[in-house]
Write a structure and sequence with these properties.
The complex is a heterodimer of chains A (about 160) and B (about 150). Helices cover about 35% and strands about 30% of the residues of chain A. Chain A has helices spanning about 5-15, 25-30, 35-50, 80-90, 120-135; strands at about 50-60, 70-75, 95-100, 110-115, 140-150. In chain A, helix 2 packs across helix 3. Chain A is elongated, with a radius of gyration of 21 Å. Chain B has about 150 residues and is α+β, with helices and mostly antiparallel strands. Chain B has two domains: about 5-50, no CATH class; about 65-135, Alpha-Beta Plaits (2-Layer Sandwich). Chain B contains five helices and six strands. In chain B, a hairpin with a 5-residue loop joins strand 3 (about 95-100) and strand 4 (about 105-110). The chains are: A alpha+beta (about 160), B alpha+beta (about 150). Chains A and B meet through helix 1, helix 2, helix 3, strand 1 and helix 4 of A and helix 2, helix 3, strand 1, helix 4 and strand 3 of B. Strand 3 (about 95-100) of chain A pairs antiparallel with strand 6 of chain B.
């Protein structure tokens, strides 16, 4: 009965992905023993509340030729970071840009911005644009290139009995 | 699969945006792209098989469900790397994990159902591996654009 189906069960049924069949929600609803309309209404509610950000494809940057991936990190003056972070976030080439805590003398960086490119030259060119933008507000930076994807699964809930 | 072609690229660009929540979503997207539903489905299956698409479906926000995300990093001695990797990846909370060029050479994201779950999982990884887990929760998010021009 659909009333007994929890959001958790719906999430578990979908976390492996949406089936590539003409009526994917009907298929998932069948597995959960609920009506397709009920499932879609529940999913719409999850989208409205932000539990589901979107239903979409996660591309593999490497397979698309974006083989260079650098996590640029910057030590930005605390009183400038909100203003400058927003300017960097508005540049067209980012997938993620965050303020995060510093971690002692070894890790003075508080702004993280991911840069992708077809090679490291392209990544470095974009990194230079960020450096220019930050100017004197930045007192240190580094770049960490990814050399291997070790895991990429997206969110998984632990099974509960 | 062979090289991705112009149609695949069109599909990849469209499918990184939200799919309509309708009974036959692939038919709706196929119509937008001027393809048949069957062609879109077979190309999506091929892109998934070739791992050009790593995952297709709903993106759940752990924070909106009362949970949390946290970027974590470890300085793993090279000779222990594979052993530590096995132990880290065994945790289902580890959503993705990258090797990077730095003394901090393993960077992963934890996604947990409760905020306390982050500390519990990071502590467990420290116990199991003997390597400290640095935690970098987001303080501010300036932009999240997911799209990659294919």
């Amino acid at each position: 009965m659909s009333i007994a189906i929890t959001d958790r069960q719906i999430i578990e049924a979908l976390q492996g992905g949406l089936p590539l069949v003409p009526a994917p929600y009907a298929e998932i609803a069948g597995r959960l023993d609920m009506a397709e309309d009920d499932l879609m209404a529940r999913l719409q509610a999850m989208k409205d509340s932000g539990v589901i950000r979107r239903i979409a494809a996660a591309p593999n940057h490497y397979k698309l030729g974006m083989t260079a991936n650098g996590m640029t990190v910057w030590n930005v003056a605390d009183d400038r970071i909100t203003e400058l972070g927003a300017q960097i976030g508005a540049l067209p080439f980012f997938t993620h840009c965050y303020e995060r805590p510093r971690a002692g003398a070894d890790w003075p960086y508080n702004l993280f911005a991911m840069v992708h490119g077809s090679d490291r030259d392209e990544v470095e060119e974009k990194r230079g644009q960020i450096r220019t933008l930050l100017g004197a507000a930045c007192t240190g930076s580094d770049i960490l290139y990814s050399t291997r994807i070790l895991k990429k699964t997206g969110l998984r809930l632990r099974k509960k009995d | 699969m062979s090289e991705i072609d112009a149609t695949d690229r069109k599909i990849l660009n469209r499918m990184q945006d939200d799919l309509p929540l309708v009974s036959h979503p692939y038919a709706a997207v196929a119509a937008e792209l001027g393809l048949t539903e069957a062609e879109l489905l077979s190309r999506l299956a091929a892109l998934k098989d070739a791992r050009v698409i790593t995952r297709f479906g709903p993106f759940f926000d752990a924070a909106a469900m009362g949970g949390a995300f946290c970027l974590c990093a470890m300085a793993v001695p090279p000779e222990q790397f594979e052993d530590v990797l096995t132990k880290v990846n065994a945790h289902p909370e580890v959503a993705h994990n990258y090797e990077r060029t730095h003394r901090l050479n393993m960077w992963f994201v934890l996604a947990t159902e409760t905020p306390e779950g982050i500390g519990d999982c990071a502590d467990a990884i420290e116990r199991e591996t003997g390597v400290p887990v640095l935690r970098f929760p987001k303080l501010q998010e300036f932009f999240i654009g997911f799209r990659v021009a294919a």
